[in-house]
Amino acid sequence: WNEIIELFRAGMPLRKHRCRFKSYERCFKASEAVECLHELLGSNQNFGPEVTRDQTVKLLKKFLKNHVIEDIKGRWGKEDFEDDGHLYRFPPSSPLKSYPKKPTCGKEVIKFPDWNEPRAGPSQEHIPVKSVTMNSEMWYKRHSIAIGEVPACKLVFRRELTQANIEEIWKSMTLSQLQKVLGLDSLDEVLDTKLVNSKHIVQNVYNVNKQGIVTLEDKSKELPHWILSAMKCLANWPSCSDMKQPTYSGFERDVFKTIVDYFGQMKEPLLTFHFFDIFVSVLGLLQKPSKAVEALQISCLLLPPENRKRLQLLVRMMARISVNQDLPRLSESVRTRTLV
């Protein structure tokens, strides 16, 4: 919520507009807001190009209701925003939701009162409860039994974590959980932990779209468009949006063979040689489906992001074509499910 509001406030152009013979400074039309926010959502990795204009209008309705925006007369609180020419503006107060903050620790050592010091005379602000002055010896005798020995007070300052610290924490927790799920005393027999790249784990955890597919920072490592089109064609058979309908018998087999040849000519399997033994260990858990799924999910976090994304797309395609009754058989001798 806060991230989108900040992006919207920073990216929304504010101009002078006229309405009913009056001019208004630093405002925008409703249609301009829809256009701007729709573009921002489309380029944001947490939303993506799947966001429609209608969904953007619904979000702006929420903005108007929660006083992220207001009309030029200062009205807000209702979801009556429409994609039209009405004028709106940002309120002067911040619309961001506040987060609870810990009180900042000052470096000055807290001083406890010296009970031996003479007390100041009575005032309106400080009226003594008792007229008798209590010195430190009297105070200690009264409270020592209740509180025991009081250690010296020391302030502990929080240490800022670096990105490298965060990545190592993710690596340590991931390997620890994997070892626990596999039921091993140590991962040394199945994995060289020095080969585990902590950056890959962090990218696989955080850089995912709404469908759970990894998004790559380096677009040159994406699958070629033609192989993606071939995979979509079989996965969505017979509704192929990226390809024309086949004009000859056996077209779907040729598409399947193209996909098989592409992944078959790779120099290294998607699971990589380094992590092969880990995935073999997962096979030993197949009699316990829930544990096997968890172990597989954790193991896939170790893969390079480009490998994990290709594996995700490939497995999803295989799952869909294995149950698609409309897809012709991809082999004369073997059933499609067995072949996949």
Automatic annotation (TrEMBL):
SMART domains: DEP (SM00049). It comes from the Eukaryota. The keyword Disulfide bond does not apply. Keywords: GTPase activation. One of its GO terms (molecular function) is GTPase activator activity. GO terms for biological process: intracellular signal transduction; positive regulation of Wnt signaling pathway. Residues 185-340 form the Rho-GAP domain. Transmembrane segments: none annotated. This is DEP1B protein. The lineage of its organism: Eukaryota, Metazoa, Chordata, Craniata, Vertebrata. The gene is Depdc1b.
